[in-house]
C-alpha cells in the first residue's frame, strides 16, 4: 500500500528503471506485453484503494491538511516541447512558493489525464494579498443596521434563513498589509482567506509565471492562458467544495455549493430572494454583482409587466367600442370599398373588409392606453436605473468595492498586454516603469478594428435589405395564392391568414435565422479584433468587447424592427406614381389601413420570444448534454473512485467571457421592452416570465454544470451601465415616433376633434375620410393587375375608382393627387406630439434623477465611519507598536539614558 506522499508513475519498457525488483530488460519480449498490462492494472487498482481511503470529495492534498487551491490537467502526448514547458512552468511556480502535488494518469478514470494540484501556503497568500490590496476585517461593524421593513410579515414567505443570507458577520475592512499582520482580526490562518480569495491569488500568480528559461528574452512566454491555448495543459480550474446534491463528509469543508443548490438553484424556489452574500463569498464579487443586477431588474419588471397587462386588458375591454374596425368589417362600408392593388401585376383589387381581422387585432395594442404606457415606460426606466445605482452603491460598500476601480487600473495589467508591449515608460501614479503601446500602433489597431466593425454592420444592413426584398417578392406570391379566397363573406373575415400576415411571419422567421447565423460568426470576430487592440487591463478589455458586441447586436436585432416602425409604408407614393426599391420592379410595401403596428408587434414577438427560448436551450440543455457525454465512462465505476478534481474536470469550463454573454442577453431584452414597448405592452410580461426562469437556470448552471469560475472583482456592471443609460434616453424618442408615425392614434384624434362632422363624440366616417380616391383608368399599364388575378366580383365597367391610404385630393380636383390640408394638419400634430411627449418624459426623468441620490445617506455615513476608523486604528496601532519597542529597548539596553540613540529615536517618533 502506498504512503500518502507517494506519486505513482506508470512504467514503460523503455525507461530501464527498477521498481520493487522488477526488471523489464530481463523478461523475454513475447512475455513483456502481458506482464506490463497486468502490472498497469495492479497499479490502477492500488491507486483506487488509495483513493477509497480519502473522501472522494476531499479538497485537500493527500496529507489531508493542505487545501487544493487550483488544479491543472494535462495529457502526456510525448511532445518534448510541451513536456519542457510544463517542467519549467511548474518549477517557476514552486520557486514563487506554491506547493504542487501530482496525480498520475494511472489514478484517473480515463487512464490518460494527469492532475496537478496546487496549494498556496500562508506566506504566499499574505505576500500577494498585500500586492493585490485585498481588504480584510480589522474590526466588527459597530453601526446598527436598520433592517425593519413596513409590513415585513408580508415578505416572510420570500425570505431565506438569515444564516444563508448573511453567512459572515459584518466587519470594517482595510487593505491587507503584511507588515501589520497583527492589526487585522485573525482567529485561524486556514480560514482567514476564503477559498474564493485563495483561488484568485493563485490564478494571479499563474497568469504571470513564465514557462521559458530566459524570462527577459521571451516576455510573451508566460501565463496559464497561453499554455492552455497551445495545448500544454488541457484545463485549469479551482475546485468546487463538494458535490451539489449532498454535503461533504469532510468537516473542514464548507459545503457552500450544496447550500447554494438547496436554497438558490432549484426552480421551485423562484419566489425566494437570492442569497447574494453567499454567492459573492463562493463565486466572487463579479458574479455576485451580475446576479444582484439580474434580480433587481426582474423585481422592477414586475411593475412594468403589471401596467402593461392593464393596458392590454383595456384594449380587450374596449374591443367592441372600436368604431373604425366596425366600419371596416361592415358589409355596407368596408365591404363596398374597393382598394387599389398592393403590388404590380400579381395583385388584384381587393375589398377593405378583408383586413377586418387585422384591424381588430391592431386595436389590442393601438389604443389610448398605448400613449400612457409609452410615457410610463419612459419614467419606469429612469426609476430602474436610479434605484439600481443606489443598490449598487450599497453593494460596493458591503462587498468592499468602493475603491476597487483605481486598484484595477493601477495594479492588474493583463498578461497579454505585458507580453506584447515591449516599450516601457514611467507610470505617474505608481512611479514605476510599466509597458505601454505606442500611439502609432494603437491608432493603426483601432482603425483596423473600426473598419471591421463597420464592415460587419454593413453586412447586417445588407441582409436586412435582402429580407425586405423577400417581403416585396413573396407578398405578390401570397396574394396570388389567396386570390380565390372569398373576401366578402363571414368565413374569410374570421380567417387568421392574410397575405400581409403570411409575409410578415415568414420574413420574421427568416430574419431570426439570419440573426443567429451572423451572431455565431461575429462573436469570434469581435474577440479577435479586441485581442488585436491589446487592451491594458481586464476591465478595459471587457469594456471594448462590450461596445463592439453591443453595436453589432443592436443593429442585428433591432434593424428589422426599425424598418417596420419607421420606414415601411412611409415612402410608397400613390397609384400612378409608386416608389420602387432601388429602381427595381419591387414596389415598396404598404401598411394595412390599421397601420404597421400589428406587423411590428408580430416581428417583436417572434424575435424576442425566439431569442429567449433559444437562449434558454443553449444555456441549460447544451451544457447538460455535454456533461452527460463527457462523464459517461465514469458512471460505470464506483462513485467512491471518482475524485473531486475528476468530477470538476468533466464539467463545462466557464470562460472569461461567460458572464459577458449573460449581460448581453439581458441588455438586448432590455432594448426590446423599452425601444419598441409602445407597439407591444405585453413585452415586459414576457421578459418577466423569462427572467424568473433565467435566474434559476443560471443558478442551476453555475452550481451543477460548470466548473467553479476563478473569483474576480467588479464594483459595478461596467460598460453595461452606460449602454442602459443610452438606451433609456433613446427609448423615449423611439416610442414617441412609434405612437406618432407607426400607430394610427394621431390621425384618429385629428379627425375626432377637427374633421368629424357627425353628431356626438364618435369616430363615425373615419375610415372613409382616411382613404383617398384614384381613377383606375390612370393606373400605368405596367402596374395594372393581370386579368386572372382580379377577384370574380371585380367588374371594370362598373368599378371605375379604387381607394388607397393617404390624404390626397381626388381626381378632377384642381390639385388632384396632391396632399390635402388634413395631411399637413396630421403631420403638424404628430410633430407636436413628439415634442410634447419627449419634453414631458425628459423633464420627469431629470427631476426623478435629481431627486434620488445615487448613494444612500446611510451608506455615505458608513464609508466615512470606516475611513475614520482605519486612520484612528492604524495610528493607535503604530503608537502601541512604538511603545512596545521602546519598552523592550529600555529593558534590554545597557547604555546611559541620554546616550541611547535607538531609545531617543523611538521617543521622538512617539
From TrEMBL:
Q: How does it sit in the membrane?
A: Multi-pass membrane protein
Q: Which residues form the Anoctamin dimerisation domain?
A: 60-276
The record's section on InterPro entries has:
Anoct_dimer, Anoctamin, Anoctamin_TM
Name one cellular component (GO) term: plasma membrane
Q: Where found?
A: Cell membrane; Membrane
Bilayer-crossing residues are 290-316, 368-388, 454-481, 501-522, 549-566, 667-689, 723-743, 831-852
Whether Heme counts among this entry's keywords is no
Q: What is its main location?
A: membrane
Q: Does the keyword Membrane apply?
A: yes
This chain's protein is named Anoctamin
Species for this entry: Denticeps clupeoides (denticle herring)
